From TrEMBL:
It comes from the Eukaryota. Signal peptide: none annotated. This is Claudin. GO terms for molecular function: structural molecule activity. GO terms for cellular component: bicellular tight junction; plasma membrane. InterPro entries: Claudin, Claudin_CS, PMP22/EMP/MP20/Claudin. Keywords: Cell junction, Cell membrane, Membrane, Tight junction, Transmembrane, Transmembrane helix. Belongs to the claudin family. Gene3D superfamilies: 1.20.140.150. It is found in: Cell junction, Tight junction; Cell membrane. Its main location: other.
Length: 224
């Protein structure tokens, strides 16, 4: 009962992390224009994402344009594209493997040991996808903070942390938490199986003692 609830909780947390990873990959709010010093044009907001940049005017109109060239992007955004795509694929694979290994899935010719290995693989994939997602999110955030406090950077080019970065941290935490839940569940199952399959100690019964005693007395009478 507890194991089933633990599996369902891990699957739900992993599903939230997977959906969040997909959303972060497509969101344009990675870098948001900063309104500081002389940059007081508050009716226009600039969003920069992995695939496009958008300009929103007075909360009414929004125009988005896909980047013309990948090489024109900064190195952190170029690397973030590949890493976020890899994280999305890994999270999806982990979610599907977790469904296959769920306790409630009654498959033919399946054993607890095989399901335990499947759950362990799902947990490791969840942790790996969360770690892969953390790399681009932290990298872009570090670049934004470094340029924000750099006096050599023009004020109009300074950016702030967008909503996609915060959602990326939450999604990565959910993926890692789901992986930890599945790994702990697999560990608990191994301990339960080891206790359940331990060979019991056999003690000789009263009939066995009586049989041995009779046999020994009978053998002595033969010698006499």
């Amino acid at each position: 009962m507890v194991g089933g609830a633990l599996q369902i909780a891990g699957l739900l947390v992993g599903g939230i992390g997977m959906i969040g990873t997909f959303a972060v990959t497509g969101m344009p709010q990675w870098r948001v224009s900063a309104f500081i010093e002389n940059n007081i044009i508050v009716f226009e907001t600039i969003w920069e994402g992995l695939w496009m940049h958008c300009i929103r005017q007075a909360n009414i109109r929004m125009q988005c344009k896909v980047y013309d060239s990948v090489l024109a992007l900064s190195p952190d955004l170029q690397a973030s594209r590949g890493l976020m795509c890899a994280g999305s694929v890994l999270s999806f694979l982990a979610f599907m493997v977790a469904i296959i290994g769920m306790k409630c899935m009654q498959c033919a010719q399946s054993s607890w040991q095989a399901k335990g290995y499947i759950i362990l693989v799902a947990g490791l994939l969840f942790i790996l996808s969360g770690a892969v997602e953390l790399i681009p999110v932290c990298w872009v955030a570090s670049t934004i903070i470094r340029d924000f406090y750099n006096p050599m950077v023009n004020v109009a080019q300074k950016r702030e942390l967008g909503e996609a970065l915060y959602l990326g941290w939450v999604s990565a935490f959910c993926l890692i938490a789901a992986g930890a839940i599945f790994c702990c569940f697999c560990r608990c199952c191994e301990k339960t199986r080891s206790y359940g399959y331990s060979t019991p100690t056999h003690y000789p019964t009263h009939s066995q003692h009586l049989y041995r005693k009779t046999e020994s007395s009978y053998s002595k009478s033969q010698y006499v």
